[in-house]
Design the sequence.
């Protein structure tokens, strides 16, 4: 079994001779921003991935592009973790309904319901319909209610639940009480009614009395009281998402046999999701969002497991994370530190996250991003992301120097002969020298006079910032003083 680090102060990366990125920092989550070609994957992403593999962590890797699968294979080989690598492709499977019910029994009915709600959200997001729907919370609550009681009835009556049976149950449930004896006789052969009768009279998996009573009341009273339009909208929303699991890759990998479970990461396995959306389209997003949610739930519950499953650090890594983010990520980031999980999300910009979660979720996105204690910014052309980075880094004082020099000469001639010489020099202060002389014609020109004058001026000034004091220089040293070159502007180092 691969050894692993446990001390929170263990350095994982050496940033400077004095500063290190520790296991404690890793548990506080890392967000990497960078535009296309900025090196976020090959720079910050690669460094963190290598550090976590060398530390012996288990982890879940979400892949948006085909080459990421091969990239992580090379990471595992390079850092000696090839034996711990599990490639989750169409040859592997995780029956998410059986998995949740096996973990919690009848209490897993609520977990299965939550998982399917996440599937519906992922399907809406993949179709470009996430967020912004009027009365969204109402639809979410009514959908969850219908799913919860449907799954409870199926589990109690049959002892197991499948996606196909969930769809069949809610689509065959009568929408009104029988009006005649003939209609009543037909209902006895109705699939949903048969399931409900077995659930109430002879269940294979007995459920709590309060859940049984709530299920009966819902389908005999509340369900039939729903407006036809409301009921139809809920049915369409649920069945359109779940019908994806009746065929193709989703059925094979998530509704058949189980070979991979999230708890494997707690034992040091690296699960690489080989369903990139660029190849599998919407199914790639739904499958990875589904398994990510199962992983997050397993990590949050790990502290109730045996010590061997509580000690090893694990990580969640997602490049182009905008494909896989959900509202539940905010909750997970609030608690994952206590469960020894390090989260690394890489994306291009803040507007990318806003667009994927819905423009009305801007505050939620800001709160979600704010839970990443460490942020790495690569080259980015997005003004909003750059302004966000600037506000985090802060501002510093800069010292600037200016220097100037001037010289002039003036000569005048007049009837009165005189000579004036003037020089001026300043370096934080000033020094002036004036001389003058004159003469008059006397005996040669008794009625005339001659005056000759000239002036020369020179000045030199320099202003400096900071705590530097200006010092006056004596006139004889002025030839030796040269202005200092402008100070080079300091730069932020990220």
Sequence:
């Amino acid at each position: 079994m691969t050894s692993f680090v446990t001390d929170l102060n263990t350095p994982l990366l050496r940033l400077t001779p004095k500063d290190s990125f520790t296991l404690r920092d890793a548990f506080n989550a890392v967000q990497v921003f960078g535009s296309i070609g900025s090196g976020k994957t090959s720079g910050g992403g690669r460094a963190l991935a290598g550090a976590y593999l060398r530390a012996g962590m288990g982890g879940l890797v979400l892949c948006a592009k085909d080459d990421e699968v091969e990239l992580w294979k090379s990471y595992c080989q390079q850092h000696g973790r090839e034996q711990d690598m599990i490639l989750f492709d169409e040859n592997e499977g995780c029956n998410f309904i059986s998995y949740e019910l096996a973990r919690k029994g009848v209490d897993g009915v609520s977990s299965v319901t939550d998982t399917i709600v996440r599937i519906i959200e992922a399907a809406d997001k993949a179709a470009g319909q996430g967020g912004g729907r009027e009365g969204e919370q109402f639809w979410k609550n009514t959908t969850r209610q219908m799913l919860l009681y449907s799954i409870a009835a199926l589990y109690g009556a049959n002892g197991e639940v499948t996606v196909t049976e969930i769809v069949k149950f809610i689509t065959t449930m009568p929408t009104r009480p029988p009006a005649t004896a003939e209609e009543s006789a037909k209902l006895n052969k109705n699939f949903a009614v048969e399931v409900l009768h077995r659930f109430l009279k002879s269940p294979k998996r007995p459920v709590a009395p309060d859940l049984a009573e709530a299920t009966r009341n819902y389908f005999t009273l509340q369900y039939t009281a729903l407006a036809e339009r409301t009921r139809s909208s809920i049915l369409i929303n649920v069945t359109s998402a779940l019908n994806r699991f009746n065929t193709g890759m989703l059925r094979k990998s998530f509704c058949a046999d189980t070979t991979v479970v999230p708890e494997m990461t707690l034992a040091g396995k690296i699960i690489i999701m080989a369903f990139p959306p660029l190849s599998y389209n919407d199914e790639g997003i739904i499958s990875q969002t589904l398994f990510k949610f199962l992983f997050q739930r397993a990590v949050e519950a790990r502290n109730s497991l045996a010590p061997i499953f509580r000690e090893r650090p694990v990580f969640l890594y997602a490049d182009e994370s905008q494909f896989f983010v959900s509202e539940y990520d905010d909750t997970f980031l609030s608690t994952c530190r206590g469960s020894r999980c390090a989260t690394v999300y890489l994306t291009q910009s803040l507007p990318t996250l806003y667009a994927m979660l819905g423009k009305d979720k801007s505050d939620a996105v800001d709160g979600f991003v704010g839970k990443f204690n460490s942020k790495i910014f690569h080259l980015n052309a997005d003004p909003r992301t750059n302004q966000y980075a600037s506000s985090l880094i802060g501002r510093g004082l800069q010292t600037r120097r200016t220097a100037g020099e001037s010289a002039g000469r003036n000569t005048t001639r007049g009837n009165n002969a005189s000579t004036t010489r003037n020089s001026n020099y300043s370096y934080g202060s000033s020094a002036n020298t004036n001389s003058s002389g004159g003469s008059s014609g006397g005996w040669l020109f008794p009625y005339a006079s001659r005056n000759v004058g000239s002036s020369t001026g020179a000045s030199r000034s320099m202003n400096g910032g900071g705590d530097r004091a200006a010092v006056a220089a004596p006139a004889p040293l002025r030839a030796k003083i040269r202005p200092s070159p402008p100070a080079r502007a300091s730069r932020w180092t990220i």
The two ends are 37 Å apart (CA to CA). Confidence is low (pLDDT under 50) at residues 416-449, 465-494. Residues 96-246 form one domain. The chain has three domains: 25-94+259-393, 96-246, 404-439+448-462.
